[in-house]
C-alpha cells in the first residue's frame, strides 16, 4: 500500500511539474520571440529539473537553497536554449521561480489551514504523500504562468526590454521579491501550529505577487515614457535638420553660385516686399561690356572671373542693409537701393 502511495505521489508531482516547466518555456518563447514550441526540449528540461528536484528532496537541503537552485537552472537553460541577453534570462528565470514558489506557498498554507497542521508538517520528499501541497503548488504555478503569458504582458516585456534603465529596474525588483519569498520559507521550519504563521505565509505570497505586478507596470510606464521622450527628441532633431536643409536649399536658390549675389527670383520678391512696405527704391541696371571678347580671348574661366569681380565691386557699393545686388542675366545685374 505504501509503495502504491509512493508511486501515485511520484506521478502526482511529476505531471504538475511538467506542466509548470513547459509553461515557463512557452512563456520564454513568447517573450523572446524565438520560435514555435519545441516539446522535446521542454520534456528534456523537465526531466533534468525534476531529477534535481528529487535529489534536493532526498538530501533535505534548506528550502531557500532549493528554490535558488531552481532559479539558476531556469536561467542556465533559457540562456542556453535562446541565446538571449543575460538580463532577459535572469528576469524570466526569476519570474518563473516566483510563480512556482508563490504557488507552493499558497497551497502549503491553504492545506495547513484545512488540515489544521503546522507548515512544517509537509514534505518535499518524492514518493511521500505529504508533498501534496507541493504538487498542487506546481499546478497552480502552471496556471499562473499561462495567465501571465498573454499578449498585453508580452507587449509590456517587449517595451521594457527595449529600455535598459527600465530593464535593470525590473531585474532589481524581481531579485528583491524572490529573495523575500525565499526568506519566508524559513517559516516552514517552525513546528508551531500557528494561525498567524500561516496567515503571514499567505500574506507574503500575496504581497510579492502584487509587488511583481506593480514593478512590471512601473517599469513598463517608465520605459514607455522614456521611449516617447526619445521619439520626441528624434522628431525634434529631424525637424531641425529638415529646417536647416530647407534653409540651405533656399540659400542655394536665392544665391547665384558664381558671384554670390542674389538671383533674379530673389530680387523680384525682395523688391515687391520693399514696395509693399512703401519704401523708396532706387534701381540701377548694369550691363557688362566686353564679356564676349574676354571669353573669346582668354577663355570662359577668365570670363567668369570678370563677372565675379564686377559683382564684388557692386556689392561693395551698398550703403544700407536692405540694399542688394542681383545677377539678372548672364552679364546683367540689378542694384536695388533704399532710402531717400
Give the N-to-C terminal Cα separation.
121 Å
Largest sheet features: 3 strands, antiparallel
Radius of gyration: 39 Å
Helix content: over 70%
Mean pLDDT: 80
How many distinct domains? Answer: 2
Q: Per DSSP, what share of the residues sits in E-state strands of 2 or more residues?
A: 5-15%
Shape: rod-shaped
Biggest sheet, spatial arrangement of strands: 1-3-2
Got a strand count? 3
Point out poorly predicted stretches.
Answer: none
**H/I helix tally:** 11
H and E order: HHHHHHHHHEHHEE
Which structural category do the helix and sheet elements fall into?
mainly alpha
What does this protein look like?
The chain is mainly alpha-helical and about 350 residues long. The protein folds into 2 domains: about 1-235, no CATH class; about 255-340, Reverse transcriptase/Diguanylate cyclase domain (Alpha-Beta Plaits, 2-Layer Sandwich). It is built from 11 helices and 3 strands; from the N terminus they run H-H-H-H-H-H-H-H-H-E-H-H-E-E. Strands 1-3-2 form a 3-stranded antiparallel beta sheet, sandwiched between helices. A hairpin with a 4-residue loop joins strand 2 (about 325) and strand 3 (about 330-340). Helix 1 crosses helix 2 (about 40-60), helix 4 runs parallel beside helix 7 (about 165-185) and helix 6 (about 150-160) packs across helix 8. It is rod-shaped and about 115 Å long.
